[in-house]
Amino acid sequence: MHLGKVIGTVVATRKDENLIGTKLMITQPLSMDLKPIGEPIIAVDTVGAGIGEVVLYVKGTASRIAARKMDSPIDCAIVGIVDDITIDN
Amino acid sequence: MHLGKVIGTVVATRKDENLIGTKLMITQPLSMDLKPIGEPIIAVDTVGAGIGEVVLYVKGTASRIAARKMDSPIDCAIVGIVDDITIDN
Amino acid sequence: MHLGKVIGTVVATRKDENLIGTKLMITQPLSMDLKPIGEPIIAVDTVGAGIGEVVLYVKGTASRIAARKMDSPIDCAIVGIVDDITIDN
Amino acid sequence: MHLGKVIGTVVATRKDENLIGTKLMITQPLSMDLKPIGEPIIAVDTVGAGIGEVVLYVKGTASRIAARKMDSPIDCAIVGIVDDITIDN
Amino acid sequence: MHLGKVIGTVVATRKDENLIGTKLMITQPLSMDLKPIGEPIIAVDTVGAGIGEVVLYVKGTASRIAARKMDSPIDCAIVGIVDDITIDN
Fold this sequence. Notes:
mainly beta; Ethanolamine utilization protein EutN (chains A, B, C, D, E); EutN_CcmL_sf (chains A, B, C, D, E); globular; carboxysome (chains A, B, C, D, E); bacterial microcompartment (chains A, B, C, D, E); homopentamer
């Protein structure tokens, strides 16, 4: 899993019909000290994540499992909202 | 999912027979402010995307789901045409 | 497989219900001489790994196999605790 | 899919028996203006590609689909020979 | 597939029980002229590869196919020992 922050949304009216009803969240990958790393990606929300929240997201088949839509063309999904990060280096 | 812009097409006459009839679109990955990032890839169009349009594309198994061709050797597909991107940093 | 070191934990109360009970470990990728390389990722522990231990982790479907939870949205898991690394260059 | 150029071959006598009979082609990834990008990879030929030809190749499960060998340990395959690339920036 | 050189081994006593009996080989990715590229990874040997040998390795599901262990948490495997590399640029 990866750490990210929800920073926006994408609207696509013409899309695969199995994507209808999904929420497409722009998610900024974060380091463990919550710094942005790399380019944002677009993840399907499956846990009610809101703008500004720090989340866990997954890629690939795991994202279709999260969405309970194995026949949807999803390759990234938000699966949790992070409460706490503890580093013991 | 990833954001991209359709910038061209590829023609391949000799190809896997399960690719016959697919439209192979050259897709430039974009940042959320629509700047090119990295090298273009070749995605199968599944939503009627045209040259110049900003699209959502997926990789891996999700692309065969989008194409409704699970027995086709596809690893990237366009699944939506983007109407609007909203960033709330 | 990849080499990593467990350096922390993540708590997410609101999450996919199939993730309930999993231990989310912050794992720092390591080179073979145990130097950090790249950004930490979040892996599900399946072998009782503790903070500070050097571990083997896997990505993708292999991680759901490791967790014995094929219906969980997991894309990274710890599958072994490393005792010894031998390099014969 | 990705664009590449076939630049050589690899011979491996001791190999997985499900790879027997496959042609292992060294494939240089190309940009859309046919410049080399990154390191060559080794792809299984499924369309009769020859040295010097510009090809489409795929990664992952798509490559086993292309090879019609779902039980072979293949993770990259050539699926088409490119006739024409059109860019409309 | 990728080219690599076996440069060492990893021992993990506490590990997923479906990994018992596997040989975990430290594999240095190589360019086609046999120069090291990037960080070594840990691949399961399926062809009797020895230290110092130049090998072909695969990632993802292909590695479980190679190991004939679809229920093992393997995401990288050695599938061939390279005899000859021919480049015709």
